[in-house]
C-alpha cells in the first residue's frame, strides 16, 4: 500500500526528522545520498499518450 523510496531530497529530510528526530540540511542530505550512497530519488516522467512506439524505436536505433 505504501510506495517504497523517496521522491526528493526534501522528502528524505522530512523523514529523518519524523522518524529519527534528526534535523538535516538539504545540502547535507544531498551530499550523503548522492555522493556517499551513490543513489538519488527519482520520479518517473509522464509518457505522452500521443507518442508513437514505432518512432521511438526508430529514434533509438538511429541516435
**Helix/sheet category:** mainly alpha
Low-confidence stretches: none
Mean pLDDT: 86
As a whole number of angstroms, the C-alpha radius of gyration is 18 Å
What string, H for helix and E for strand, traces the elements in order? HHH
Strand content: under 5%
Number of DSSP-assigned strands: 0
Q: What about the largest sheet?
A: none
Tell me the helix content.
40-55%
End-to-end distance = 39 Å
Number of helices: 3
Looking at the structure, what is the overall shape?
elongated
Features:
63 residues; mainly alpha; 3 helices; elongated
Task: Describe the protein in words.
The structure is a single chain. The chain has 63 residues and is mainly alpha-helical. It has three helices and no strands. The radius of gyration is 18 Å and the shape is elongated.
Topology:
Elements: H1 9-20, H2 26-36, H3 53-62
Helix pairs in contact: 1-2
In short:
By secondary structure, the chain is mainly α. The chain contains 3 helices and no strands.
Amino acid at each position: 500500500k505504501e510506495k517504497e523510496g523517496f521522491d526528493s531530497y526534501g522528502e528524505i529530510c522530512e523523514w529523518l526528522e519524523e522518524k529519527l528526530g534528526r534535523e538535516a540540511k538539504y545540502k547535507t542530505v544531498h551530499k550523503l545520498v548522492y555522493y556517499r550512497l551513490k543513489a538519488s530519488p527519482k520520479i518517473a516522467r509522464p509518457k505522452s499518450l500521443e507518442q508513437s512506439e514505432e518512432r521511438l524505436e526508430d529514434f533509438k536505433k538511429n541516435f
